[in-house]
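Worked example 3 (structure in, sequence out).
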């Protein structure tokens, strides 16, 4: 049983989100936040907010010691895809898929 926080319908593709989440899986919360602070991906800011939200849930609801918490699991699932069209040459059109993600962060004690 861990402390969870979810962000749904985040406007980033799951593939790009998984690149950032692999950096912090299994790390202590302090270390994960410092790694994300120096990561040059746009999704790192969103993931920082989500980890801070899970940390606040741990403080408020479970009265756990936040110094011993570790990022146990991060799941990035695909959300709904918005479909658009962009005009191309010779009167044709190409489909553009704007993907979204559902992210779940689970913190647990070491």
């Amino acid at each position: 049983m861990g402390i969870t926080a979810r962000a749904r319908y985040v406007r980033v593709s799951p593939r790009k989100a998984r690149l950032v989440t692999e950096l912090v899986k299994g790390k202590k919360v302090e270390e994960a936040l410092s790694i994300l602070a120096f990561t040059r991906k746009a999704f790192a800011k969103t993931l920082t907010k989500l980890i801070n939200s899970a940390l606040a849930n741990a403080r408020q609801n479970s009265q756990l010691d936040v110094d011993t918490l570790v990022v146990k699991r991060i799941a990035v699932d695909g959300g709904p895809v918005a479909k658009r069209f962009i005009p191309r040459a010779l009167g044709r059109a190409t489909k553009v898929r704007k993907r979204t993600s559902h992210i779940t962060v689970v913190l647990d004690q070491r």
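Notes: Strands lie at 3-10, 69-78, 82-87, 93-98, 101-109. The mean pLDDT is 95.
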